[in-house]
Amino acid sequence: MWKLTDFDYNLSDNLIATAPVEPRDRARLLILDKADGNIVHRHFNNILDYLSPGDCLVLNNSKVLPARLSGIKESGGVVEVFLSKRLGEVWECLLKGRVKVGLVLKLSEKLTATLETAKDDGTWLVRFNLIGSEFFKAVEMIGQVPLPPYIIKQRGDDKLSASDKTDYQTVYADAEKQGSVAAPTAGLHFTPELLEMIKCKGVEIVFITLHVGLGTFLPVKVDNIEEHQIHSEWAEVSQETVEKIVQAKQSGKKIIAVGTTTTRTLEYFANKILRDVAGLADWVDIFIYPPYQFKIVDSVITNFHLPKSTLLMLVSALAGKNKIDEAYKQAISQNYRFYSYGDAMLIK
């Protein structure tokens, strides 16, 4: 039985990245061979050396919402509304401020929110007066980028930089796929030029969509990790992506997942993908930890994750706990930059 403390490590605050490197693909890249534990230190644009013609690179094209909104009560009081996930015609939200059922908040001249139900987990069901593209346009105008708390804390103030709105978004985020409240951060390292070079090498680039939810910020609170209940997140896999993955698997080529969100999506739908079932969409709630046996994913491009996080458990399942421990030890000793805006790792 794995205990939560098995996935703990110490990290100096000065290794928490508060901004990305420029250009994006000049971040450092630790290459970990999961077969023998060999470690090599490169830069992200060297990823080309580890991809072969016919391999399938799978990216999460979900677009990050500016999910932090500020609402005004009729009394003049302020309530922060943090969008978590869309549930049909209502949204699950986190609220900060004095609130009650039926309260109406003014978010802008066009957008209002009505608080409908308080849930047991501390979130609220909130109904907005706008839906669809009109809702997203209004949020885009007034919302703030939902940077992780540890970045804000390390910066020493609550201010966002002028570049956060673009920095905290992948270059391939699809405007038609809005819905994440945290970036699929492994993908932040790609530039249009690097993606073009990868295509030119004969690598298939395909997309899934998983809208990253609040669960990415929530800590594991149980000592026995098997008792942890992971939050569900909406995901979709197109027919084209399924076909390309099946083709690569049948040809003996590698499936390289960019990020833990992509990894979880592919493994959740693994049995259907292997049967070439098209048009996959569902709430994904797969929790991957050792000794999980991967069915689709061969390699993962990922960032360095928080101690005791489900993300650290996932990469430990892929590479082996001891190999991940050694990789993190080397990354710390060589001053790699950690977390969302930090450096990357390829587990091959």
UniProtKB/TrEMBL annotation:
<protein>
    <recommendedName>
        <fullName>S-adenosylmethionine:tRNA ribosyltransferase-isomerase</fullName>
        <ecNumber>2.4.99.17</ecNumber>
    </recommendedName>
</protein>
<keyword id="KW-0413">Isomerase</keyword>
<dbReference type="Pfam" id="PF02547">
    <property type="entry name" value="Queuosine_synth"/>
</dbReference>
<keyword id="KW-0671">Queuosine biosynthesis</keyword>
<dbReference type="InterPro" id="IPR042119">
    <property type="entry name" value="QueA_dom2"/>
</dbReference>
<dbReference type="InterPro" id="IPR036100">
    <property type="entry name" value="QueA_sf"/>
</dbReference>
<comment type="subunit">
    <text>Monomer.</text>
</comment>
<dbReference type="GO" id="GO:0051075">
    <property type="term" value="F:S-adenosylmethionine:tRNA ribosyltransferase-isomerase activity"/>
</dbReference>
<comment type="function">
    <text>Transfers and isomerizes the ribose moiety from AdoMet to the 7-aminomethyl group of 7-deazaguanine (preQ1-tRNA) to give epoxyqueuosine (oQ-tRNA).</text>
</comment>
<comment type="similarity">
    <text>Belongs to the QueA family.</text>
</comment>
<keyword id="KW-0808">Transferase</keyword>
<keyword id="KW-0963">Cytoplasm</keyword>
<dbReference type="InterPro" id="IPR003699">
    <property type="entry name" value="QueA"/>
</dbReference>
<dbReference type="GO" id="GO:0005737">
    <property type="term" value="C:cytoplasm"/>
</dbReference>
<dbReference type="GO" id="GO:0008616">
    <property type="term" value="P:tRNA queuosine(34) biosynthetic process"/>
</dbReference>
<dbReference type="InterPro" id="IPR042118">
    <property type="entry name" value="QueA_dom1"/>
</dbReference>
<comment type="pathway">
    <text>tRNA modification; tRNA-queuosine biosynthesis.</text>
</comment>
<keyword id="KW-0949">S-adenosyl-L-methionine</keyword>
